[in-house]
Amino acid sequence: xxxxxxxxxxxxxxxxxxxxxxxxxxxxxxxxxxxxxxxxxxxxxxxxxxxxxxxxxxxxxxxxxxxxxxxxxxxxxxxxxxxxxxxxxxxxxxxxxxxxxxxxxxxxxxxxxxxxxxxxxxxxxxxxxxxxxxxxxxxxxxxx
Length: 144
Known about the structure:
Keywords: Coiled coil, Membrane, Transmembrane, Transmembrane helix. The protein is mainly α and 144 residues long.
């Protein structure tokens, strides 16, 4: 955005940007609203609210020449295409490694689920057999 502001200031610094109403759906979440307002204020826009709940927000009129076209050089840097491609390759490699790890964990979980099902069946069979034996023992004891 700062790059766009810089470009607009070179060509149309005397122009005025008309005020506009902000989307009220962004005001529902406090963090989203604060992040949006901080972003707009850092560019030089004045954010105002018509209500106490900060639902009806708007941007005041501002001249293009009064906007800020600077950015935080620690967070935003211009990088070369080769460097960007290396970063993308590294990110893709990390993503593939994470997918492999996730697949291994999912396989392990499904193995445990199968083992759990088998153990439940075994326990159910043993309980049934124990009840049968108890019933048989009672029947033998009462019929002698």
